[in-house]
């Protein structure tokens, strides 16, 4: 166990010192911040999609609400965008309740499809809204007025802000995982009917998980806006935003604390690399590779990359623990 | 006024029949093995490119491109089944999303790399000019697409519900182990389902290409329509997809005409969510 402890300490130190390690390169600092931001979104999704097994493919609704709340706080009230984050989170919890009550009754793929439809509905509506800047979208403060605008040239401040938020979110997720709610959610994921028959208020707990997940997804949206300073219907409410959260969590290992982070660590650099080698025909080819990597991992490790670690660990300790994720 | 309304409903029905056709492949797979193919829209897209290539290389119209696209996409479907889907079916539901989304990106950007990002269109008069019948204006390409779409969807429905082959496929979808004990090979039936779904999807793609622009990313838009149509109709039910497709087509045209083109999708999504609220299994799905 001491060797494991040592590895953990080294990892934490590396994460904390990362911007200093790559100080020479703004590209790498930016990459680190982007990985953390994506990990926040995917980890937020993981609460309802991974632990409770309710595969929402419409989380862009909450991401967009967060991003737009931040920017509207600036355009309408002249406040720093980040002041819109709590508004976005509260609004998302409300919207999650409105969407969740009817859709969480649906099972399996029907729930996923309903969430896609709701997200598309919101995307189309947002592009027709004058208040939200229509199809052009809205921009944050062009020049930072104070440090509260959280508008920095260097990516390092974003890195630490995102790291703090991610750490808080993972801590909360960890607490849920090992608390009463975590047991309920896993029971619901394995078999909702069995959970209900044992007296778990499945509907209520699914809704709690959904609302909590929505709040943190909105926070990810607000943070996105502070870094990018701009949002339009596609980058806020687009279906790709939702799908990426699902794919990152599933790639690393859904329903596992560090699964989404692992997924983000692989996909974000891959995508940024593709973007930086953009130029004519090359753009297509790198995304072909991106797609191929995703499908190969799904083909050989259907329960995500972390299942590999689990397999090794269980083989080592000879514990006859079943590998997670083979529900149904 | 009322004549215009009839015109709007007719073009909605024609569009709806095409929706039904390109959704029937998705619903077949979904019902048969509880797999949602997130690459479905990109299958349609490749069907469209097949049609475009047949025209640019050989100068052939739909009579050549429809069978060609059916064969190409059926092959693609069977290959996807054996190389990918067969394996990810053993994993959790998320693995399907992961795997088929990976496939979607692979195909989409493969098409971008091969064909470039530019929109391609087939010539307007490829399927003949528009004509007026009983005061209603018909566009040749859309009539062909609508009628063929309706026929192929009905044929698929009859094949699944009225033939021995259909019964065998149903048996596999109900209980693969029991079916195997009765001498049915589940993998062969599932591969066949992917082939049939691919053929229907390819036909739909080739037909859509005659009146819609073809681009590498067109599948994303089409996939959402297919997802909505299939869940609306109830998964596994080709007849459900047909009814849902027609309803969506008409509702779309009517709301575009009465409220405004921007709101046509809004109305469709609201209708969809409302239907799921009252019938969580869709119009014709089994409870």
State the low-pLDDT regions of chain B, or none.
none
Secondary-structure class of chain A: mainly alpha
Largest sheet of chain B: 2 strands, antiparallel
Task: Indicate the CATH class of chain A.
Answer: Mainly Alpha
Question: What is the arithmetic mean of pLDDT of chain A?
Answer: 85
Helix-residue proportion of chain B:
over 70%
Mean pLDDT of chain B: 84
Number of domains of chain A: 1
Under CATH, the topology of chain A is which?
A: ABC transporter involved in vitamin B12 uptake, BtuC
Q: Just give the CATH class of chain B.
A: Mainly Alpha
Which chains make the largest contact? A-B, 56 and 54 residues
| Strand arrangement in the largest pleated sheet of chain A | 1-2
Number of domains of chain B: 1
Report the β-strand fraction of chain A as a percent range: under 5%
Instruction: Tell me the CATH architecture of chain B.
Output: Orthogonal Bundle
Oligomer: heterodimer
**Could you tell me how far the N terminus lies from the C terminus of chain B, measured between alpha carbons in angstroms?**
42 Å
Spatial ordering of strands, largest sheet of chain B? 1-2
What count of helical segments of chain B does DSSP give? 11
Helix content of chain A: over 70%
Q: What is the architecture of chain A at the second tier of CATH?
A: Orthogonal Bundle
């Amino acid at each position: 166990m001491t060797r494991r402890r040592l590895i953990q300490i080294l990892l934490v130190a590396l994460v904390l010192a990362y911007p200093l390690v790559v100080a020479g390169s703004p590209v790498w600092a930016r990459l680190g911040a982007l990985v953390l931001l994506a990990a926040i979104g995917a980890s937020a999704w993981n609460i309802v999609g991974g632990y409770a097994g309710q595969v929402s493919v419409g989380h862009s609704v909450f991401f967009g609400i967060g991003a737009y709340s931040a920017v509207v706080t600036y355009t309408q009230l002249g406040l720093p965008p980040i002041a819109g984050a709590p508004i976005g989170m509260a609004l998302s919890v409300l919207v999650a309740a409105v969407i969740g009550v009817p859709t969480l009754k649906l099972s399996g793929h029907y729930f996923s499809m309903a969430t896609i439809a709701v997200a598309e509905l919101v995307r189309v509506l947002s592009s027709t809204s004058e208040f939200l800047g229509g199809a052009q979208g809205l921009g944050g403060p062009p020049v930072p007025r104070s440090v509260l605008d959280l508008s920095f040239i260097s990516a390092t401040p974003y890195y630490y802000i995102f790291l703090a938020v991610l750490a808080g979110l993972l801590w909360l997720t960890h607490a849920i995982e090992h608390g009463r709610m975590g047991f309920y959610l896993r029971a619901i994921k394995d078999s909702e009917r069995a959970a209900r028959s044992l007296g778990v208020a499945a509907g209520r707990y699914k809704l709690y998980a959904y609302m909590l997940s929505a709040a943190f997804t909105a926070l990810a949206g607000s943070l996105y806006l502070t870094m990018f300073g701009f949002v339009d219907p596609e980058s806020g409410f687009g279906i790709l935003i939702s799908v990426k959260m699902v794919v990152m969590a599933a790639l690393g290992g859904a329903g596992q604390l560090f699964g989404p982070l692992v997924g983000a660590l692989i996909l974000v650099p891959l995508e940024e690399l593709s973007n930086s080698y953009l130029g004519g025909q090359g753009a297509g080819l790198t995304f072909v590779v991106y797609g191929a990597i995703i499908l190969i991992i799904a083909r050989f490790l259907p329960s995500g990359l972390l299942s590999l670690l689990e397999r090794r660990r269980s083989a080592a300790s000879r514990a006859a623990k079943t590998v997670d994720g083979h529900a149904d | 006024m009322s004549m215009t309304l009839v015109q709007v409903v007719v073009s909605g029905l024609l569009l709806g029949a095409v929706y039904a056709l390109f959704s029937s492949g998705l619903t077949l797979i979904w019902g048969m093995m509880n797999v949602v193919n997130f690459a479905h829209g990109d299958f349609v897209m490749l069907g469209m490119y097949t049609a475009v290539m047949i025209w640019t290389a050989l100068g052939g119209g739909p009579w050549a491109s429809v069978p060609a696209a059916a064969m190409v996409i059926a092959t693609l479907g069977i290959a996807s089944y054996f190389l990918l889907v067969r394996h990810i079916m053993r994993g959790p539901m998320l693995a399907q999303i992961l795997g088929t989304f990976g496939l979607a990106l692979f195909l989409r950007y493969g098409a971008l790399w091969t064909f470039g990002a530019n929109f391609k269109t087939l010539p307007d008069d490829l399927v003949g000019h528009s004509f007026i019948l009983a005061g209603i204006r018909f566009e040749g390409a859309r009539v062909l697409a609508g009628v063929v779409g309706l026929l192929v969807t009905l044929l698929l429905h009859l094949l699944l519900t009225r033939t021995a082959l259909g019964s065998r496929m149903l048996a596999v979808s109900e209980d693969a182990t029991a079916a195997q004990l009765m001498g049915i090979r589940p993998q062969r039936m599932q591969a066949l389902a992917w082939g049939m779904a691919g053929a229907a999807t390819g036909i739909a793609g080739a037909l859509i290409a005659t009146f819609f622009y073809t681009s590498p990313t067109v599948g994303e838009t089409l996939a959402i329509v297919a997802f909505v149509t299939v869940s609306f109709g109830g998964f596994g039910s080709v007849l459900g997809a047909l009814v849902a497709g027609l309803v969506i087509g008409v509702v779309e045209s009517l709301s575009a005409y009465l409220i405004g083109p921007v709101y046509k999708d809004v109305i469709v999504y609201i209708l969809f969510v409302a239907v799921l609220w009252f019938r969580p299994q869709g119009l014709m799905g089994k409870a």
